[in-house]
Amino acid sequence: MADLILKVTSEEVRNKAQEISTQRELLEGYMQEMQNQVTSLESSWEADSGSKYMEVYQNVSNNIKKSLDTLQTHVDNLSQAAERYETLEGQQTQVVNSLRTDSIFG
């Protein structure tokens, strides 16, 4: 782990988290539109195949919702990591700035 080198800034991480969050929100919107369409279809589809389709759709929909929740967890983790890095960087800067340099050679 000591050889770990960060090649992104906390701002880049935060921006990427926001991009992912925006895409996740779009997917949630599409899922809601799909749910509305399927719900309206359900009332007119009375055959056994309609019931089976609804069952399969609900299973798939639940899996997608779980995936979107997991994606949100990753977004939250990225945002927290950026915040922690900025906090630690600020603390290190304060320590460095407090070091005395006037009596190193004297």
Question: What this model shows, in words?
Answer:
- 79% of the residues lie in helices and 0% in strands.
- It has helices at residues 10-42, 48-98.
- The longest helix has 51 residues, at 48-98.
- The chain has one domain: Orthogonal Bundle (Helix Hairpins).
- The protein has two helices and no strands.
- Helix 1 (10-42) runs antiparallel to helix 2 (48-98).
- The model has no long low-confidence stretch (mean pLDDT 90).
- It starts with 9 loop residues before the first helix and ends in an 8-residue tail after the last helix.
- The chain is an all-alpha fold and 106 residues long.
- The chain is rod-shaped.
- The relative contact order is 0.12.
Structural class: mainly alpha
Q: What is the overall shape?
A: rod-shaped
Per DSSP, the total helix count is 2
Tell me roughly what share of residues is in helical segments.
Answer: over 70%
What is the CA-based Rg, rounded?
A: 25 Å
Low-confidence segments: none
Instruction: Give the CATH H-level superfamily.
Output: ESAT-6-like
Q: What is the typical, i.e. mean, pLDDT?
A: 90
What's the SSE pattern? HH
